[in-house]
Structure formats: C-alpha cells, structure tokens
Design a protein that fits this description.
Layout (H helix, E strand, L loop, with lengths): L8 E8 L2 H11 L4 E7 L2 E9 L9 E6 L13 E8 L2 H13 L5 E5 L4 E6 L5 E6 L31 H6 L18 E8 L2 H12 L2 E8 L2 E10 L11 E6 L14 E8 L2 H13 L8 E2 L3 E7 L5 E9 L24 H7 L5
Parallel strand pairs: 1-4, 5-8, 9-12, 13-16
Antiparallel strand pairs: 1-13, 2-3, 3-4, 5-9, 6-7, 7-8, 10-11, 11-12, 14-15, 15-16
The structure holds fe (ii) ion (2 copies).
Length: 356
C-alpha cells in the first residue's frame, strides 16, 4: 500500500480548437517551451502538443488535443474548474498580471487564499488558469503534523464581500514586462481544482487509490457556502509541491461538466516506472475500479480510470521522457510520430496545418 502513493501530477491535458493559437499563448505569452509536437495517437488527424519546462519534466507538462470542431466545454461536477501554475512569490505574480493585462488578457486578483496568493485568467479557448505563489503553504494555519483535521473558516477580509476589490484590481507591476526571466518563470502545476457532488466519496477515492491525503478542509472564498477540500502527497511533516488536487463540494443535483474546448480532458499523476505502473493497475483493480490496459504513449506508459464523479485520470510513468525520439536540445522542433504511425507520415502531416 505504502508503495502506491503518487508523488504528484505528471501532466494535465486540455482541449483546444486551434493549435497555432494555443502555441502562441502558452509558448510566447506564458513562456512554456513546446517540448513535443505530435498527433493524438488515438486520432492521428489532429495535433497533440506538449509544453513543459526545458526537458518536459513530469509535473510541468501541459498538453493539448486540437479538436478544431469541438463545441465549447463547460465546468461542472466531474470536470475541472481551473489549473493553477506555480510562481515564486507575489512580486513575480504581479509581473505576470502586468504582462497578461498588457497582452489584452483580463486578469483578476491577486487574492490572498491564506495558503497561497492567486491571480486568474483564461486561455484563448476559455480554460481558466491560475498563477499561485509557492508559499506560505498549508501549515500557515494548522500544525504541519495535523493538516486537514479541522474545518478552516477563512478570515472575513479574504472572503468575497469582505475584500477591498478596488485595491486588489489596482495592484500591478509598475513597468511593462516584455520578457520572462528565470525568477519569474512559471514552475509547473501548482494545483488542479475540480467539482464533486460527493466530497466524502472523493476523499475516500483520492486517499485510497492515489495515496494522497486530505491536507486542508475549508470553504470556497468566492462562494463561502461551498466546501473546498485539498488533497496532496503529505507524510505528516511536509506537503510535496505539485501534488495538490482540490475539489469544490457541490450538491447532488448540480450541473455536470461538458467535454469540449476550454475544458480539461484529463489529469495525470506520476508513477516511477513501468514495473510500478503494473502494480498500480493491480492496486486499482483490487478496489473495484475499472482501469484501461497499459498504453504506450511513446514518452511514457499510461493507464486510465475515472474518479467517482467521472473525471478522467491517468497514471503515467516518469521514463522515458521527451528525449526518446529527438535531441534534448531541440525538443518540439519537428513533428514526431510513434513507430506505428511513421508509415503514414505523409498522409498525417499533409492533413495538419503547419504550426509556425
Ligand atoms: Fe495524458
Ligand atoms: Fe485554485
């Protein structure tokens, strides 16, 4: 059992209508290198783009299926509300607010979320993104050895209605921010927040299947009647960055998520290697969870299953990574296909619009 504790997120996959527009936004505006351009292995007529840090390390990876004809998705139960990306501190966060605002992307916040500070915006498809500070962390209002035991009520000045919204709106970096330096650079997935209509079932699921632990019980500061639970890789003395899955608890008759553009398709967690992934599969099956066979995604091996709310999850291996089929200094430079699609390269490539 102790072996089946994921260290955190491997990647998040979202749906976009236009790969070129997505490239411009994530690479040029947010500064994530494109680490792989390939196609959806299950639907090779469309792009699958991978962004991440320079090497595309697990935990930094954001991937996009291009579905040109997709309708607009909608968040709800069984879906993701937003994906949060980590930034060093509030000063760097304000630079992002300035950079995005200057580029015509509306930004809200910074909001003091007690355990981190957050700004929010949307990508061109409407996917909600957050940039969250790494600190101060979950031990700011509970002892580190007793996280998640008490329901924490946020301070009134942090709640909607009690905040100085005009002052928050006015906060920004004083100068334009045309370039992204290393201090400012986004550091990967901070947390992912979705919706459940059964917090108790979700709690059991994240603890038993993924080995994550409940590290905070609170309410949504923007909607204080809604409970907000946080799970993470936590051993009683520290919370691993890049492992925090959070859910808003909605009533049982709440609206369901709808797949489509601007929505998260699935959330992947890490496994050490293929041998461990095989063990994960047995571990999930033993709990009565329906699990896909192990699939070869070329850059990792994967299996898929759903949360009780229907959110698609994946467990993906760290190895072999993105340098398996191209030089690590030139990741993402050309269209890469897995061996079994290589014979169809001409047909596949001619159906795709060039990215640059
Ligand atoms: Fe995936
Ligand atoms: Fe968030």
């Amino acid at each position: 059992m102790a072996d089946y504790v994921t260290p955190g997120f491997h990647h998040v996959t979202m749906v976009a209508k236009d790969a070129r527009r997505t490239l411009t936004f994530y690479r040029d505006l947010l500064g994530f290198p494109l680490v792989k351009q390939t196609v959806n292995f299950d639907l090779p007529s469309s792009y699958h783009l991978y962004f991440g840090d320079e090497q595309g390390r697990p935990g930094t990876i954001l991937t996009f299926f291009e579905w040109p004809h997709a309708g607009r998705g909608a968040w709800g139960v069984g879906g993701v509300h937003h994906v949060a990306l980590a930034v060093a501190d509030e000063a760097q966060q304000l630079k992002w607010k300035r950079r995005l605002t200057d580029a015509g992307v509306p930004v809200t916040g910074p909001y003091d979320r007690t355990w981190f500070t957050s700004i929010y915006f949307a990508d061109p498809d409407g996917q909600i993104l957050e940039i969250a500070t790494e600190g101060p962390g979950f031990a700011i209002d509970e002892p580190i050895e007793a996280l998640g035991r008490e329901l924490i009520q946020p301070k009134p000045h942090r709640l909607v209605g009690g905040r100085d919204e005009a002052a928050i709106r006015a906060l920004t970096h004083p100068e334009p921010v045309p370039a992204i330096d290393d201090v400012m650079r986004l550091r990967g997935i901070h947390h992912v927040t979705g919706f459940t209509d059964d917090l108790q079932a979700a709690d059991e699921f994240y603890q038993r299947t993924l080995g994550l632990r409940l590290v905070k019980r609170s309410v949504n500061q923007d909607d204080p009647d809604t409970l907000h639970y946080f799970w993470a890789n936590y051993d009683g003395s520290r919370v691993l960055p890049g492992s925090d899955m959070t859910l808003f608890g909605w009533p049982a008759d709440a609206r369901r998520a709808r797949e489509g553009a601007g929505q998260t398709h699935h959330v992947a967690f890490r496994a050490r290697d293929e041998e461990q992934l095989t063990g994960w599969r047995e571990h999930l099956l033993a709990q009565g969870i329906e699990v896909s066979p192990i699939k070869d995604r070329n850059y990792f091996k994967s299996l898929y299953f759903r949360s009780p709310d229907g959110l698609l999850h994946e467990i993906a291996t760290d190895p072999p990574g993105f340098a398996v089929d191209e030089d690590s200094a030139h990741l993402g430079a050309t269209l890469k296909l897995p061996d079994w699609l290589e014979p169809r390269r001409e047909e596949i490539a001619s159906a795709l619009r060039p990215l640059d």
